[in-house]
């Protein structure tokens, strides 16, 4: 029996190794990593007569061993926790209707986009006229001064439109009366965690450990002036190791402001290398070369959101650059459209005034992502972390591909928006039953109140420092479940006031200002209490 188990383990490890060997070759850093290893092998540090040992020693002293370990870590993350449990539930329950809903939703967005183009008599894509290209290039670092009339443009959809789509989804196996209001997502059979299970995940929070984000002057357990000094000291040592798993573990107790950007880049594998700088320049050149209707939607969205936000208006110029480059990034397309939770529908646009040949046809937009009202807010907090637009771009992109695209995609994924809404409802119903009943009595669906928080990951709703503390936790635990947990906690915190109002406008007024909230203490309270 033991021998069989051992053989099975070896076979499993071999399969994983083969899969890793194959898939690592398609990872972004493979070429540069392989080139560095080749250089090392050809150097005098590696001896032919003792090839294996001298190579391992050289890899270690050169820092390439850590680079390889980080690459494996990022590969494992891409395979791991964000999908495992859902695959089990998918085998048990037929959730294909969710994928159909996503396909229909994508078609609806595309139809809306085409209608916008027809109404405004503008093409989906064209070669940018020379004069416009020159002006764009000249104003690249101050695109807020780029003069363009966008008065006729409107966002294709807003979070409330997407929520209506989610509410319209019905499980074919679920019987309901025709006049019954779609009150909740409970008919959708996706596994979500209980509060007890969340406590086991967010152990550092649930145990009441000393965390940054509570009180920076909290006494240190070592010989430091306070906790923040201690965390800075340890954080610098973590960054010196250049080891992503250690950085991820470190984030569980909070990131010092000065180190946060470097820690996030390390965990996400988005540290900028020379080939990244070159690719970023290519994206910029594509923006200058092609004029696509998405550009107008992006500029409009920045104007409607970040420009009108006291915390982010100063970053308007860098946000234009970031979002415009993102729209041209074909490396975003594959992960988003091939993810099993996505519909995979893309538009193919022929450049205006060009023959309908293959070379004049492009996937539209090249990233495959069509922005909605508030899409820019996924990028705004990164402005506080990086001075270099290129560094900001790659970490934003990595964060989006790991987490944010799930927040505007209908899917059966346990980290998808449907599951997060379901988790919110279950937690509220179980742990704040009086509040849940109150909402039912006044005919307000609780998820309608918090959906904009969840879909944006609280960006634009929490002050930047508190938001970054929340996003530290998303990265640290590699999970979006902290978002609905925080949403429930905020309702619980404002429960007394919420119980005294009886219409949606008043409920929203009670929850309009979150500027005084401290994220980490609130989450600790939620996870500590029985």
From TrEMBL:
InterPro entries membership: Rab-GAP-TBC_dom (IPR000195), Rab-GAP_TBC_sf (IPR035969), TBC1D19 (IPR042507)
Highest taxon listed in the record's lineage: Eukaryota
Domain Rab-GAP TBC: 254-478
Protein name per UniProt: TBC1 domain family member 19
Species in which this protein is naturally found: Bombus vosnesenskii
Lineage: Eukaryota, Metazoa, Ecdysozoa, Arthropoda, Hexapoda
Encoding gene (name): LOC117232792
């Amino acid at each position: 029996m033991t021998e069989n188990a051992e053989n099975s383990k070896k076979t499993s490890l071999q399969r994983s190794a083969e899969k890793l060997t194959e898939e690592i070759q398609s990872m972004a850093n493979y070429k540069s990593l392989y080139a560095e290893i080749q250089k090392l092998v050809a150097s005098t540090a590696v001896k032919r007569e003792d090839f294996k040992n001298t190579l391992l020693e050289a890899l270690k002293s050169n820092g390439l061993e850590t680079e390889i370990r980080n690459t494996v870590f990022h590969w494992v993350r891409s395979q791991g926790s964000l999908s495992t449990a859902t695959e089990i539930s998918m085998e048990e329950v037929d959730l294909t209707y969710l994928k159909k809903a996503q396909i229909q939703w994508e078609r609806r967005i595309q139809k809306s986009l085409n209608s916008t183009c027809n109404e405004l008599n503008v093409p989906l894509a064209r070669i940018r006229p020379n004069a416009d290209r020159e002006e764009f290039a000249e104003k690249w670092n101050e695109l807020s001064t780029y003069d363009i009339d966008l008065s006729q443009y409107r966002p294709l959809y807003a979070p409330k439109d997407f929520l209506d789509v989610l509410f319209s989804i019905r499980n074919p196996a679920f019987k309901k009366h025709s006049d019954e209001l779609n009150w909740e997502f409970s008919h959708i059979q996706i596994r979500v965690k209980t509060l007890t299970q969340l406590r086991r995940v967010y152990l550092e929070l649930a145990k009441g450990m000393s965390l940054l984000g509570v009180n920076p002057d909290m006494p240190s357990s070592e010989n430091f002036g306070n906790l923040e000094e201690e965390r800075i000291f340890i954080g610098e040592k973590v960054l010196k190791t250049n080891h992503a798993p250690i950085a991820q573990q470190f984030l569980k107790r909070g990131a010092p402001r000065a180190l946060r950007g470097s820690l996030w880049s390390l965990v996400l594998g988005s540290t900028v290398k020379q080939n990244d700088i070159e690719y970023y320049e290519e994206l910029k050149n594509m923006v200058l070369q092609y004029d696509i209707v998405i550009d107008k939607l992006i500029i409009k969205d920045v104007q409607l959101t970040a420009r009108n936000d006291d915390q982010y208006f100063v970053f308007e110029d860098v946000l234009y650059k970031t979002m415009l480059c993102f729209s041209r990034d074909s490396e975003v397309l594959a992960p988003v459209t091939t993810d099993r939770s996505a519909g995979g529908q893309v538009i193919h646009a022929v450049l205006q005034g060009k023959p309908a040949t293959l070379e004049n046809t492009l996937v539209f937009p090249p990233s495959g992502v069509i922005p909605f009202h508030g899409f820019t807010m996924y990028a705004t907090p990164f402005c506080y972390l990086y001075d270099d637009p290129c560094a900001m771009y790659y970490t934003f992109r990595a964060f989006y591909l790991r987490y944010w695209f799930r927040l505007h995609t209908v899917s059966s994924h346990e980290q998808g928006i449907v599951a997060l809404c379901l988790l919110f409802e279950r937690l509220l119903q179980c742990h704040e039953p009086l509040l849940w009943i109150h909402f039912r009595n006044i005919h307000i669906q609780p998820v309608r109140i918090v959906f904009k928080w969840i879909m944006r990951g609280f960006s634009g709703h929490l002050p930047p420092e508190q938001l970054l503390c929340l996003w530290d936790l998303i990265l640290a635990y590699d999970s979006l479940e902290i978002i609905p947990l925080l949403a429930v906690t905020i309702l619980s915190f404002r429960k007394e006031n919420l119980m005294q109002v009886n219409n949606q406008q008043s409920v929203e007024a009670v929850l309009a200002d979150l500027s005084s909230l401290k994220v980490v203490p609130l989450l600790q309270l939620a996870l500590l209490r029985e």
